[in-house]
Write a structure and sequence with these properties.
Layout (H helix, E strand, L loop, with lengths): L21 H18 L6 H14 L18
Length: 77
Amino acid sequence: MPRGNAGAGHGSTTAFYRSALYPLLSRINAYLVRWIRKKYKRLQSRKKAMKCWRGIIERYPSMFAHWKWVPSVPRVW
């Protein structure tokens, strides 16, 4: 879904649709939650892991750059 003058050469930039990245970024969040659940046995249940996730996002909102766009986790993971 790139638009603009891709590959035009000298100093050109490629524009992109931010919304096209949302599924990828939320999938990255899902992988992070899965890592948390595997690393910390007390967070194996989905409910506890999601509570921890929300706490992390509130305390460290700029830990990952993509959290400004997509701080949530998809339901299916």
